[in-house]
Amino acid sequence: MSEERNLVKAIKEKGKNLEAEMSFFDHLEALRWHLIRAAIAILILTGVAFWNFKFIFDEIIMGPFRPDFWTYKMMCKLGEGFCLQKINAEIINTEVGGQFMLQINSSMLVGIILSTPYILWELWRFIKPALLEKERKAAGGFVLYASLLFLVGILFGYYVIAPESISFLASFSVSDTIKNTFTINSYLSMVATITLIMGLVFELPILIFVLASLGVLTGTFMKRTRRYAIIIMLIVGAIISPSPDVTACMIVTLPLLALYEIGIMIASRIEKRRAKEHTDLMTS
Predict the structure, then answer these.
(1) Separation of alpha carbons 273 and 34, rounded Å
(2) Selection from 193, 158, 168 nearest residue 64 by Cα
(3) For residue 17, pLDDT beyond 60
(4) Per-residue pLDDT tens for 143-173?
(5) What is the separation of C-alpha 114 from the centre of its chain, rounded to a whole number of angstroms?
(6) In this structure, are residues 106 and 49 in contact, taking their beta carbons and an 8 Å threshold?
(7) pTM of the predicted protein model
(8) Measured between alpha carbons, how far is 56 from 58 in angstroms, rounded to an integer?
């Protein structure tokens, strides 16, 4: 009888293991199709960008390098001292296939940025089945809010940080004998890095929401460490902004502070909700 019970127990354990393995591979299969669909979306939008590359290059990529760019016009309205008459630099290509690779890389970058909302939607579809009904309702606007924050960050990086960086670096010189001549790859890399970093930085409230929902972060903790967070954000603002001007540094830092304060409100709300649920559970 003992051997039979052990055999039955072993069969049950084997069945549980097989079920767990099947569930794991089912999740991998689902993830694979989500990734495939996201990759297809990137390829399609990359193709659209490649087909319309002349407009993208002239109006978007090279926009911050032109004195008539929207940001420079707005700066000029603040006073003649802020007007930018000319960008004292030239852009060259130093590689045989440089311009062709520029078109491919730029098109792929635009494709990734434009497909971000769809990628987030596929991510949401993958994690949604693993959430409880209450968690699904709480995170119902994940795709919308994450996409809007990413878009705002991209626009902030493109219209504020990138022009500021280009105008400063193009006019900066340690000697009159050195002319600023940038390669197209370095220019594109700087603009793309700035815009993408700001797009990711603006996702801070989403990150705080996730951490607060998991119980890793609380509004009380964020309030208590606010002074340290301000110092860190000032350092980050100084790093992102190449200009040593305090005003330029604050232009970058203030949105980070605003995002942190929004994160505090989000974390505090979740903390209060969790405390209420705990109290209701204890009194029931």
Answers:
(1) 32
(2) 158
(3) no
(4) 888 999 999 999 999 998 888 888 888 888 7
(5) 13
(6) yes
(7) 0.81
(8) 6
